[in-house]
Amino acid sequence: MSTKSGVGVPLRLTLYARAYCHLCDDMLVALESMRAERDFALDVVDVDADTALEARYGELVPVLAHADRQICHYFLDRAALTAYLDAIG
Question: In this structure, which topology does domain 11-88 adopt according to CATH?
């Protein structure tokens, strides 16, 4: 279980995405299935709603991040996410 943010509180990851992005939809579905195996919360943020986020992530979306660390982009890298969760958990 990844509870770095406190006792019993799941780690919060952020998926930077956009509404018309099929890769974003695919990563969200993959993350939801992975949440059944691992304990983490997920916030989905529309990069097009914020010019700074759009400038930062642009064509990289979807981007999965924790704090300022990018874990993966375009497709869910399950191995990278598992390693990250294990390292901080």
Answer: Glutaredoxin (3.40.30)
